[in-house]
Amino acid sequence: MTLSSEEIRTELKRAGMRPTAQRLTICQYVLNQANHPSVEDIKAWVDDKFPGISLATVYNTVHALETAGLVQAIRFDHSDKVIYDSNTEPHFHFLDEDSGTLLDIQPEQVQINLNLPEDVLVNDISILIRGKRQ
Amino acid sequence: MTLSSEEIRTELKRAGMRPTAQRLTICQYVLNQANHPSVEDIKAWVDDKFPGISLATVYNTVHALETAGLVQAIRFDHSDKVIYDSNTEPHFHFLDEDSGTLLDIQPEQVQINLNLPEDVLVNDISILIRGKRQ
DNA sequence: TTTCTATTTAGAATCATTCTAAAATACGCC
DNA sequence: GGCGTATTTTAGAATGATTCTAAATAGAAA
């Protein structure tokens, strides 16, 4: 899903966030172009379009986006950095161990059957599949 | 699985690690008693039995255990700390969101069917189920 | 023992992230 | 358009987990 500049503005306002130039630029990357970026990735990309943006602003913005439900912070074993996922629909992940790329796996691609004690109420299932392409 | 002091010695030697007093104490906790401890947890427990042990030694030891394949480092969204898992058999995890406890889920309790492109070779699947007990 | 190498250690260094407080900016209101 | 106020941005300091460094110590083999 790609959002126009105007749609990003609208999303930010809906979330009670002022659509500042910094935020619009960050969102252009995080919500549209990036694939599971870290803060470092975001900063590097945004630096080009918005020289002088501060690292604190990137952190502030991803936190605000997280609170607004526009992105989700995730953390995997293979990296010590938080990455941000703009896909807010339920889905899983595939890590290509050769390239380090993280791809989305649609729920339809995964059938799970849990056999848990009756008193367990499941709120969320997260799955990371690691592998290679032959 | 609980290992005797002697068995821990043997395991360490087999891994090419000298069974020092510090390592034996750390293993007693990490391999036997602890449940997915963080380095902080380990340090706190070991401090009692081995006053003056250095934090660096705890880090050194868990890294050596990891290299030896005796533990696995894991990282979850809900914490920024690495935790160590002494269960080296394939298994999954359940996070009790009320207590913060992390429990093992046996592979038998989970049936998965993946529908992935043919050229994908799966090496590992990690699953975290979050929920509550009613 | 002696010697050699692995291990431990305190403390400094690093890296990601958060905090702080001041300056800049957006936006509603006149 | 200009004003006032709450929000946002910012540089830099602070924090917290982890790694590094270099010197002291302790296993193990001869």
Task: Tell me what the structure shows.
The structure is a homodimer of 134-residue chains. Chain A is of the alpha+beta class and 134 residues long. Chain A has two domains: 5-84, Winged helix-like DNA-binding domain superfamily/Winged helix DNA-binding domain (Arc Repressor Mutant, subunit A), CATH 1.10.10.10; 89-131, no CATH class. Helices cover 35% and strands 25% of the residues of chain A. The longest helix of chain A has 13 residues, at 21-33. The first copy, chain A, is globular. The relative contact order of chain A is 0.13. The mean pLDDT of chain A is 95. Strand 5 of chain A pairs antiparallel with strand 5 (110-114) of chain B.
What is the fold-level CATH name, i.e. the topology of the largest domain in chain A?
Arc Repressor Mutant, subunit A
Which percent band covers the strand fraction of chain A? 25-35%
Number of helices of chain A: 4
Helix residue percentage of chain A = 25-40%
* Unreliable residue stretches of chain A: none
Cα distance, first to last residue of chain A? 29 Å
Taken from the alpha-carbon principal axes, the silhouette of chain A is globular
Mind telling me the CATH class of the largest domain in chain A?
Mainly Alpha
CATH architecture of the largest domain in chain A: Orthogonal Bundle
